[in-house]
Amino acid sequence: MSLLFILMAVCYGCKNEERPIVDPENPQNEYKVFTIKEGDHYSDNAGIAILNKDSLDFQVIFDSSAVYKNVIPENQHDINKLIGFSDCNTGHLENSIRIGWRFSDDSLRLFAFAHNDGKMIEKEISTVEIGRVVTGKIKVVNSEYYCTINNKSDSLPRFCTGTVNSRYMLYPYFGGDEAAPQKITIKLKYD
């Protein structure tokens, strides 16, 4: 048996979901596992971290737990949050940029999602496959946020202008209106 197969078997057999896992396509880098429990909005593993730069690169792997059905059908179009950061020296509900996600119309969809002077704006960027590594980037350039998913990019307007300011990281969150209808596990690495 190959060493890679043994490592994968050991990692997938682990009961501790907070343990970093190895990406079989890139075994030198580790992912952090974020779990949103059934009935919750917030994920575990989401401590407080300051971001002192204008961009955030990340990779994510969604598993089959990202396929869900909301109790109230119209909430299926609410956008869950994956990763991002606050902006403009304000709280994230005032100004922030994130990559959002939802499962709708039989597809896992990723969005650029911002709070811009307290107003929510979003644009769908791409659909992605369950179980595949998704590469992304969020970048602030003057009065725009640029969001890229697997080489597809789009932008959203930014309320403030200027260079790096006091920002904090934002981690996986389920909802809108409803909490997670089941346990959801997201594997994420970022720098």
The main sheet comes to:
7 strands, antiparallel
Average pLDDT level: 86
Strand order of the largest sheet: 1-2-13-4-9-10-11
H/E element order: HEEEEEEEEEEEEE
Strand residues, percent: over 45%
The stretches of 5 or more residues where confidence is low (pLDDT under 50) are 1-21
- Cα-atom Rg, whole angstroms? 17 Å
Q: Characterize the overall form.
A: globular
What structural category characterises the helix and strand content?
mainly beta
- End-to-end distance: 33 Å
Give helix % range: under 10%
- Helical segment count: 1
Number of strands: 13
Structure description:
- This protein is mainly β.
- It is built from 1 helix and 13 strands, in the order H-E-E-E-E-E-E-E-E-E-E-E-E-E.
- The strands form 2 sheets. The chain has a 7-stranded antiparallel beta sheet. A 6-stranded antiparallel beta sheet has the order 3-12-5-6-7-8, with no helix packed on it.
- A hairpin with a 2-residue loop joins strand 6 (95-104) and strand 7.
- The chain is globular, with a radius of gyration of 17 Å.
- The model is unreliable at 1-21 (pLDDT under 50).
